[in-house]
Amino acid sequence: MLKIGITIGDPAGVGPELILKISRHFDPQKAYVIYGEKKIMDAIQKELGIDLDLVDIYTIEEVKTPGIYIADLNISEADRLMPSLTSGKVAVAYLGRAVVDAVYGNIHGLLTMPINKFWAKLAGFSYEGQTEFLAQACNVKEYAMLMYSERIRVVPLTTHIPLKEVPERIKSQEIIKKVKLISREFKRLFDVEPTIGILGLNPHAGDMGTIGEEDVKEIAPAVEALKAEGYKVEGPLSPDSAFLREDLDLYLCMYHDQGLIPFKLLAFKEGVNLTLGLPFIRTSPDHGVAYDIAWKGIADESPSLSALRLCEKLVEKTCQ
Predict the structure, then answer these.
(1) Dist CA 305 CA 183 (whole Å)
(2) φ, ψ for residue 275 (rounded to 5)?
(3) How far apart are CA 17 and CA 19, in angstroms?
(4) What DSSP state is assigned to residue 30?
(5) pLDDT at 77
(6) Residue 318: which residues within 8 A CB-CB, separation 6 or more?
(7) Secondary structure letter of residue 216 according to DSSP
(8) Displacement of CA 301 from its chain's centroid (Å)
(9) With contact defined as beta carbons under 8 Å apart, do 93 and 79 qualify?
(10) CA end-to-end span of the chain
(11) Looking at residue 99, what DSSP letter applies?
(12) What is the average pLDDT across 168-187?
């Protein structure tokens, strides 16, 4: 029996609502373990009028049959939280609780709802994002954030760092390592040896070094080295026109917004954040906590449902 873990994310955001909405699509042959406050899940059920039969568990070993379970740490005294240190603490605590089970192989896939980095960091979370935390928890040095949809797929070389720090992170060896990881993982998960478009950093991919030097000194040599080893790569591609291509399986982008802006424009409703390089499957919807619409019953569950479906599909493939 396959077990899928789902973290509550920031409980002041849309995470609890989205979990309820996608629960209507759960596979009756699988077990789903929600890592979150029972009182909060009960409150959102009353708010939305959706009944969910949750089975309380203390340890994952209690999950022996298909169904919907909840692992409750009972952190908060309230059943409804505002964005705060407490909501950040809840988000971090349940992420950590779920990762323990995932690392030990007690759950086969993990779907994480969004957290807010400001409140999470106030609560002691010292990572750039959930992806970086998961990688360190698994003692994984090489990993990647693949933004996945059927229409477009992108991997940012750098993720949640200030834009001014990006140029110093653009190194040939880092590009080479990332491409090798992407190629290996994409083939393992999707049975495809991908053709990867590698974007330049500067306008027009540097215009032969007249607009910055990174494209000529770091990116182009990495592309040539990868080609010499037989990898299917192209670049450096001019970022303003690269996404018009239809012959590439995915893009390696140099920084977060370079890839995430076109991705969200083209695939927001079905976009999934898939972490490559972990010993288990981890997906997440491609959006934030959306405090402004949380607990109102109007959040669109499409990205979360896409994340659930991809998680289930890859778990079934990798756990055969």
Answers:
(1) 26
(2) -85, 125
(3) 5
(4) S
(5) 87
(6) 108, 188, 189, 281
(7) I
(8) 16
(9) no
(10) 11
(11) H
(12) 97
